Amino acid sequence: MIFKEFGLYKLLIFDWDGTIIDSTGRIVSSIRAAARNLELPLPTEEASRDIIGLGLPEALRILFPASGDEVIEPMTRQYAHYYLGIGQPQFPRLF
């Protein structure tokens, strides 16, 4: 039985983003919705995709260079609100 083999491992690590779930669309739409809500210049979809993989403060400094660090906290709150609130089926290809 294949499941007996898992007894050899104490920890299994999965690459979540891009392997189990594709979060690119969610990240891009959340960044743009947060910017729109805060009346900041709307980054393009391409610019929003290009910062994926960076830490959020660094990404926001790149997307909103004229706003300085004062944009980081409100954008982080708004981004989290939209990112966590947008419905997306979990594991759409697995079930």
TrEMBL record:
Entry's Pfam families? HAD_2
- Report the Gene3D superfamilies cross-referenced here: Putative phosphatase, domain 2
- SUPFAM superfamilies per record: HAD-like
Kindly give the InterPro entries that the UniProt entry links to this protein: HAD-like_sf, HAD_2, PGP-like_dom2
Signal peptide segment: none
- What name does the UniProt record give this protein? Phosphoglycolate phosphatase
Source organism: Marinobacterium iners DSM 11526
